[in-house]
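Researcher: We plan to redesign the surface later, but first we want a full-length starting point. Tokens attached.
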């Protein structure tokens, strides 16, 4: 593979090149200057699976043929995600280098540039030499990667066996080593929900993936007949998170810190995400050009009347020539990109009417949205055209000034009356132009952003999927809720506040009802079910609370309570999803209990825990129809001075 790439890249260098770039004091970069190797990671925990790369492609199925370790995103027979790509662009400015235009025989300033990797998987760049604008950081690689652990360690037959493996929480072999030879986690630890301090050793999700990438040295390459882009010297430290819980199984989170490593103070920078999900129609599986791209910035909740923030760009099934759903409200499957965190606004209009509805300090959200269908009716990709950088920035920024009519007609869609909003395509206008449906390739972006030298900007988004628009919107709301709570997941009730009063041959416990009144942070349900009481003579720091409980295979399950009280609600017996947690026998709730089996002069420790009934398949208890989830019990605590229970 390495020899093939070098030969092919050298072939393009040999070809007559119409452009020769000079990036300030940097030497000319061509596609033959280095062999392209990147890092990859597999997010295969949730239902929505993805393989990501440190080349700006956060999902691309073409590197690996759906191997067990490197999965394709597949939603049954309804949906397959083709690609998700990051774009960051700036206009012409003081940072813009010059190139030697041989047709004019003089140095000419370049214009806008966009660092991206759309259609840059091996199927294309091995043929064209058009390598991605993003890649692994060449310096200090050993700070982020285990350089001795690559794809070859998992699949020695892969043509990409030289690719590094991203640091992954579930595989310590991917972790780098410090100067003493010890492995360490280079990513972010989970934070304490109260203090906000990192908890070393605790990961954020069921599988965390950490990666670092840059456009330095990658975005400067040239191609015959194509205006060269130039690197912005941006470095991205990124994390990918996923959860097994049913309500989050169709979400993959991406949390990015963009660092300006250059000497320049960038103005009017835009960050965008391009996605290309393939949604198959009910009439013709494996045929995906009957799609409809759309977006939802916010909507009024029908129940509460509150304004719900979505910042969602999505693609749904349009049906075979539009016959599936005449109202085009729902489809067979939906896939979307939701912006979770964007830079603060400076007071901009986002309502298509010119009024500033983004007040200073509030998040920008999605400020531009277009269907970036980059191939024409003859299936010719325009990404190889000479003005690629210019029209890509035009789409990112929503500015049609100076771009060719071909690209304006391809990427800017007026509404049915002919009115063009350069910031937002009209979904109805897209359908009018393509009544049988189209290939949905939405590009959502946020900006304008000022990014000074040495500064950082925080950008987070998520891939989401649903069986229809209703479930997609529910998943989007969950993604926002989890992100806003620091990736907190649905959990057990908060512990009650307990007071112990000793007596002659007895101990009386008193506790409050805060566990019953605090809603679940994700579902909003008050799903409290009961209390359990534990006792031990051992220091609670050892977390040994009485008689242990084992399953038939001898595996430890927990400790047996000495008392239990539950609501009289008909929810009894063992939990159906986790048959090791007893839900009670409708004994009724109490807030006082006396232990009369104690000995005077002996130290006892007590813990009163609260537990819920989980998320049940019962619309009375689960009106929002979240996927079922097992019952959960709060922690017993290990420090009497810190734990309230």
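Model: Full-length starting sequence:
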């Amino acid at each position: 593979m390495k020899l093939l790439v070098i030969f092919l890249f050298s072939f393009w260098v040999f070809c007559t090149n119409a452009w020769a770039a000079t990036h300030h004091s940097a030497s000319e970069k061509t596609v033959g200057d280095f062999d392209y190797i990147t890092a990859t990671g597999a997010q295969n925990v949730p239902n929505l699976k993805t393989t990501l790369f440190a080349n700006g492609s956060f999902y691309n199925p073409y590197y690996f043929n759906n191997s067990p370790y490197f999965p394709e995103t597949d939603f049954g027979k309804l949906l397959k995600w083709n690609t998700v790509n990051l774009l960051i662009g700036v206009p012409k400015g003081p940072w813009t280098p010059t190139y030697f235009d041989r047709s004019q025989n003089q140095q000419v300033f370049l214009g806008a540039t966009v660092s991206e990797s759309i259609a840059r998987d091996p199927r294309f760049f091995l043929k064209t030499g058009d390598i991605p604008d993003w890649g692994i950081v060449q310096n200090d690689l050993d700070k982020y990667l285990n350089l001795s652990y690559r794809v070859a360690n998992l699949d020695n037959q892969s043509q990409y066996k030289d690719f590094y493996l991203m640091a992954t929480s579930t595989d310590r072999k991917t972790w780098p080593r410090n100067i003493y030879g010890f492995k360490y986690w280079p990513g972010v630890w989970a934070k304490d929900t109260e203090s906000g301090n990192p908890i070393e050793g605790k990961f954020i999700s069921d599988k965390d993936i950490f990666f670092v990438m840059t456009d330095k040295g990658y975005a400067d390459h040239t191609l015959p007949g194509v205006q060269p882009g130039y690197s912005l010297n941006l470095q991205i430290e990124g994390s990918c998170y996923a959860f097994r819980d049913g309500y989050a199984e169709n979400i993959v989170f991406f949390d990015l810190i963009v660092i300006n490593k250059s000497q320049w103070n960038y103005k009017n920078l835009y960050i965008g995400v391009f996605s290309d999900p393939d949604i198959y129609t009910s009439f013709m599986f494996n045929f995906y050009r009957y799609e409809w791209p759309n977006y939802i910035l916010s909507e009024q909740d029908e129940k509460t009347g509150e304004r719900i923030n979505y910042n969602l760009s999505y693609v749904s099934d349009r049906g075979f020539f539009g016959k599936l759903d005449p109202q085009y409200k729902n489809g067979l499957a939906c896939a979307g990109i939701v912006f979770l965190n964007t830079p603060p606004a400076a007071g901009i209009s986002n309502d298509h009417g010119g009024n500033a509805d983004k007040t200073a300090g509030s998040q920008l959200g999605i400020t531009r949205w277009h269907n970036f269908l980059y191939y024409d009716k003859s299936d010719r990709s325009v990404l190889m055209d000479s003005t690629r950088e210019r029209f890509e920035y035009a789409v990112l920024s929503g500015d049609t000034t100076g771009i060719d009519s071909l690209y304006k007609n391809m990427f800017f869609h007026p509404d049915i009356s002919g009115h063009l909003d350069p910031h937002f395509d009209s979904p109805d206008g897209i359908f009018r132009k393509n009544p049988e449906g189209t290939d949905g390739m939405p590009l959502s972006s946020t900006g304008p952003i000022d990014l000074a030298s040495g500064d950082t900007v925080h950008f987070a988004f998520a891939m989401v999927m649903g069986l229809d628009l209703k479930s997609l919107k529910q998943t989007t709301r969950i993604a926002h809720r989890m992100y806003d709570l620091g990736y907190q997941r649905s959990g057990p009730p908060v512990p009650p506040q307990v007071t112990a009063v000793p007596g002659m041959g007895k101990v009386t416990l008193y506790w409050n009802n805060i566990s019953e009144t605090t809603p679940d942070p994700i579902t909003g349900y008050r799903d409290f079910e009961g209390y359990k009481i534990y006792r031990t003579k051992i220091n609670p720091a050892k977390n040994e609370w009485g008689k242990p409980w084992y399953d038939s295979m001898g595996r430890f399950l927990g400790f047996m309570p000495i008392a239990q009280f539950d609501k009289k609600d008909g929810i009894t017996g063992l939990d159906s999803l986790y048959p090791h947690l007893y839900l009670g026998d409708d004994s009724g709730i109490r807030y006082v209990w006396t232990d009369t089996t104690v000995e005077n002069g002996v130290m006892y420790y007590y813990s009163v825990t609260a537990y819920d009934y989980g998320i049940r398949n019962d619309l009375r208890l689960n009106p929002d129809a979240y996927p079922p989830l097992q019952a959960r019990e709060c922690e017993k605590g290990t420090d009497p001075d810190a734990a309230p229970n």
